[in-house]
């Protein structure tokens, strides 16, 4: 590959949207990322005036006419399906005589959105109550209660099935409280090895154990000072750690592993569990005294199937939000389809609904819900993508779609799918795809 080819390749794949226009503003070339970002095909843009993309082109046009560069200007782009905010930088390119020749435009996701992404990794809470969607009376009362207790120093215990919004609530409470500008530090006992929980929570002093960092390290409690600590999946916390935690709550101080000092920490504790902790107490897995210490302000989030009136609202909300993010068209939901969504029991709750809408937007239609067949275990949802769980289902739906396109002609369908006829027959048998209605379709083994 020569140098020029190499540069072209880099520009093509750089993670910023890039367009080059001539002096008149006609697009000469764009990179792949720009097409992805805006949802256009190459032919939709090239040789067209770049200003078909902008909502307010005049200001920018003027700047460029004045031979000025534009740096990180916020612009609204008329993307294929939506208006999306980007930051734009643009630079005129001069020829050897110093005349302005082409203009290079660089589009990036807005700083605001990037800041959001940064906040997630920097001990910050991003959710706020206004992003918790509900019209259910009981749920609205719960939000009201959560707001009222946001400034209390007492411990909150949030329980609810997986995907009901426990973390969303915890973050919203923090952001509603006077601690909002202080850290929100989360630790998930179910997600880190048991042997590391202690040092994660309490930190350690220099040389506390082999492999410890030379200068020691603060624990999450110290990091959360003045803010909130979110103890997620508290039911997974080992028994001896529960004892230490209880002491922290009672004394308001922490000491690092291998350390002698007791540090006073001012931390608001919010704990969450998708297990019934009372049951865990009865079984002897969870300390009774700790349970009562945590359960001072209980918030029990009801599963989605107990507030079905929220389903249409959430469908609309996620449809809007996700289509905007993916820059894809919304799916219309027929009355029958909505009935189906209402009758489904949503074992993965709001997260499952959200993922289902994302899947539908990606597919361009709503696949059938398979009811009890999809089993959601709390951990699965953390570890797998919904699409992963649904792969068989997606395959089945796709096969049916293609069969319909080709009026159930097996040879044509198999060819379109890029598989052999026998493989297609096998899959149709496996998924119990009924094609009796078609004259072309006979499920008998034929050689490919
Ligand atoms: N009422 C709601 N309105 C809008 N979005 C919601 C609502 N409840 C939950 N969500 C969405 O569902 C997703 C899952 O919520 P969250 O992570 O808080 O669940 P969780 O109860 O902590 O589940 P898990 O027990 O599996 O950790 C969130 O990312 C959020 O997008
Ligand atoms: Mg959670």
From TrEMBL:
InterPro entries: AAA+_ATPase (IPR003593), AAA_lid_NorR (IPR058031), Homeodomain-like_sf (IPR009057), HTH_Fis (IPR002197), P-loop_NTPase (IPR027417), PAS (IPR000014), PAS-like_dom_sf (IPR035965), Sigma_54_int (IPR002078). The keyword Nucleotide-binding applies. Pfam families: AAA_lid_14, HTH_8, PAS_9, Sigma54_activat. GO terms for biological process: regulation of DNA-templated transcription. It comes from the Bacteria. Gene3D superfamilies: 1.10.8.60, Homeodomain-like, P-loop containing nucleotide triphosphate hydrolases, PAS domain. CDD domains: AAA, PAS. Keywords: ATP-binding, Nucleotide-binding, Transcription, Transcription regulation. The keyword Repeat does not apply. PANTHER family: C4-DICARBOXYLATE TRANSPORT TRANSCRIPTIONAL REGULATORY PROTEIN DCTD (PTHR32071:SF57), TRANSCRIPTIONAL REGULATORY PROTEIN (PTHR32071). This is PAS domain S-box-containing protein. It comes from Tepidimicrobium xylanilyticum.
């Amino acid at each position: 590959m020569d140098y020029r080819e190499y540069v072209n390749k880099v520009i093509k794949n750089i993670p910023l949207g890039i367009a080059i226009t001539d002096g008149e503003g006609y697009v000469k070339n764009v990179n792949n990322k720009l097409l992805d970002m805006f949802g256009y095909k190459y032919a939709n843009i090239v040789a067209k005036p770049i200003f078909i993309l902008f909502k307010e082109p005049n200001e920018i046009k003027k700047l460029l006419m004045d031979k000025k560069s534009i740096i990180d200007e916020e612009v609204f782009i008329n993307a294929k399906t939506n208006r999306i905010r980007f930051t734009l930088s643009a630079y005129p390119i001069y020829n050897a005589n110093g005349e302005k020749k082409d203009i290079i435009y660089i589009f990036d996701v807005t700083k605001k959105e990037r800041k959001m992404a940064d906040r997630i990794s920097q001990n910050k809470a991003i959710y706020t109550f206004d992003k918790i969607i509900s019209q259910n009376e009981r749920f609205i009362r719960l939000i009201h209660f959560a707001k009222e207790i946001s400034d209390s120093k007492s411990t909150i215990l949030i329980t609810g099935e997986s995907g009901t919004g426990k973390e969303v609530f915890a973050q919203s409470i923090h952001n509603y409280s006077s601690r909002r500008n202080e850290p929100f530090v989360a630790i998930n006992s179910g997600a880190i090895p048991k042997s590391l929980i202690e040092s994660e929570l309490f930190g350690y002093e220099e040389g506390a154990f082999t492999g410890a960092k030379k200068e020691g390290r603060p624990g999450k409690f110290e990091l959360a000072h003045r803010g909130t600590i979110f103890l997620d999946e508290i039911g997974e916390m080992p028994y001896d750690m529960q004892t230490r935690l209880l002491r922290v709550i009672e004394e308001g101080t922490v000491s690092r592993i291998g350390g002698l000092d007791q540090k006073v920490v001012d931390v608001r504790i919010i704990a969450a569990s998708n297990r019934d902790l009372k049951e865990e107490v009865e079984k002897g897995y969870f300390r009774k005294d700790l349970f009562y210490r945590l359960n001072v302000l209980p918030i029990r989030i009801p599963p989605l199937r107990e507030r079905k009136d929220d389903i249409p609202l959430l469908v609309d909300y996620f449809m809007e939000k996700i289509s905007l993010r993916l820059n894809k068209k919304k799916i219309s939901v027929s009355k029958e389809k909505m009935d189906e969504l209402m009758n489904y029991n949503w074992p993965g709750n709001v997260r499952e609904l959200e993922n289902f809408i994302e899947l539908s937007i990606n597919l361009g239609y709503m696949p059938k819900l398979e009811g009890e067949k999809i089993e959601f275990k709390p951990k699965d949802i953390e570890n797998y993508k919904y699409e992963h769980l649904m792969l068989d289902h997606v395959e089945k739906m796709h096969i049916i779609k293609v069969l319909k396109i080709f009026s159930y002609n097996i040879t044509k369908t198999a060819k379109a799918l890029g598989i052999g006829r026998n493989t297609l027959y096998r899959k149709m048998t496996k998924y119990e795809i009924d094609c009796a209605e078609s004259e072309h379709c006979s499920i008998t083994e034929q050689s490919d």
